[in-house]
Amino acid sequence: MREATGELQARFARLVELTERHRTLFWTLHSLWALGWGVAFVLLGTERPQLLRWGVVSVGTVWLTSLVLPAFLASRWVRESRRGAARSLVLWGQKWLLQGLAFFLIPLYHRSATYPSLQLLFMALLVLAALAATIDVIYDEVVTRKRLLLGTFLSFVAFATMNVTLPMVWRVGGIWNLAVSGVLATAVFVSLVAGRGNGHPARAALRAAFVALFFLALVTLGRPAVPPAPLRLASVHFGASLAAGGFDVARSLDAIPPAASTALVAVAAIQAPAGLAEGVRHVWSVDGRVVFETRLIGITGGRQRGFRSRSGVTLRSLRPGQRVRLDVETAHGQLIGRAELPVRL
């Protein structure tokens, strides 16, 4: 048993030594390869969403290795002179998982994002996360060196992954999706950031609870800025009345004339995965001022052209130059999409 352990340690030592000797070359080759790897996952993200379940495994692996890495480097398995190379080797594995995952998520969220809106901030953070996991120097020497930054980075990736995996793979939406994604992100953040409270268990527990409550509140309040993937607004048609059967408007309008009283209806088609049930609402506004908001409309996924949701409103005293807007939102305030209709003569 002791001989087998010694042989394993020797092999690991040789691998660490090789990594240390050619670190610059490996960094360069890895960064170039990572760019191509990321492009491949951008394409896969629109075609193979079922691979997301492996994304959850990737997040769990990176989370676990981040927690045990300090103890691993301090163990007798790694000589002090080789700890730098051993750390690089572990981080290389983390980057390999994270960059593929982040690039995989980008097209999934992009299809559901509305521009311009607060969701632009989430998409920018997702792109930055992908780049941070791709560029070796940034991930190795910036992200992982600061516990707060690593906790924020990994909890964001964990939230983004779980938030889209639950509805797309396991058909779980609504409040459960929000709860599970938020709790997972909070757990990741607290485990990496809360620390040990300077050796006092009570202080450590209090600090962890405070950090958990703060971060969970942040995740919950920031929900409107998250694209409602995989929900997507396929089309919106405005009209004066519904067609026979009520599946569309009788005649689609591109603009409406000014009038003392104008009756409008809208049919919004929402695409969602088969088996997913969600609640949405229509919010009508004129020049940014909300004039009417519907009750929740239940939709079910799986329809090729999208589930048709309908609403109507009567608008008064419309003037030339005004804009009538319809926002389609989830029950929790996430914007699925919007459409506008100008008022002109």
Gyration radius from CA atoms, angstroms: 25 Å
Shape: elongated
Helix content: 40-55%
Nearest-integer average pLDDT? 86
Number of helices: 9
Integer count of domains: 2
Characterize the largest beta sheet: strand count, sense, and whether it forms a barrel. Answer: 5 strands, antiparallel
Question: Would you spell out the secondary-structure blueprint of this structure?
Answer:
Elements: H1 2-21, H2 23-44, H3 52-73, H4 83-112, H5 119-134, H6 136-143, H7 147-169, H8 174-193, H9 201-221, E1 232-239, E2 261-271, E3 277-286, E4 289-293, E5 297-300, E6 307-316, E7 323-330, E8 335-342
Antiparallel strand pairs: 1-2, 2-6, 3-4, 3-5, 3-7, 7-8
Helix pairs in contact: 1-4, 2-4, 3-4, 3-7, 4-5, 4-7, 7-8, 8-9
Summary keywords:
alpha+beta, Immunoglobulin-like, 3-stranded antiparallel sheet, 53% helix
Written overview of the protein:
The protein contains nine helices and eight strands. It is α+β, with helices and mostly antiparallel strands and 345 residues long. It has two domains: 2-225, no CATH class; 232-342, Immunoglobulins (Immunoglobulin-like). Strands 3, 4, 5, 7 and 8 form a five-stranded antiparallel β-sheet that branches. It has a three-stranded antiparallel β-sheet with strand order 1-2-6, with no helix packed on it. A hairpin with a 2-residue loop joins strand 3 and strand 4 (289-293). Helix 8 (174-193) crosses helix 9 (201-221). The protein is elongated and about 90 Å long. The N and C termini lie far apart (89 Å).
